[in-house]
Fold this sequence. Notes:
The protein has five helices and no strands. It has helices at 2-34, 45-77, 80-101, 107-114, 121-128. It is elongated and about 75 Å long.
Amino acid sequence: MLDQVVLIAGVTVLGVLEQGNFFSLQVTYARRKYLVSAPSTSGPPEFQRVFIAQSVSFLVILLLLFYLFVTYLYFKFFTAKVLWVLIGFSTLGILYSVCRFYLGLDLTQRSSTVLCLTEGERGSNEGRE
Length: 129
């Protein structure tokens, strides 16, 4: 599976380069069209739209690179055992949510009372009297 990451990486890097190049050229054309000098970032509203689109594209580029890194880590370090642990924890989370919202059972409170981590209702009322 790790060899497939190379293909994903290639496509992602090509997409990042294409997107960065496209928006850089759009800003260059807008600077020429609306007569905005290179260091300045203010100008007519039409130029502002293009410049903001380029700024947002850099955020997208960073997110794509982060996605690529996480995908690499996933294929390199996740094994079947880790996957089963994640499935187990998600099953416990779903069971907890179903019991709490649909059955009206708060499993964390009940389990802490059973394990003597907190006092039950009797113990807390006896201490107040």
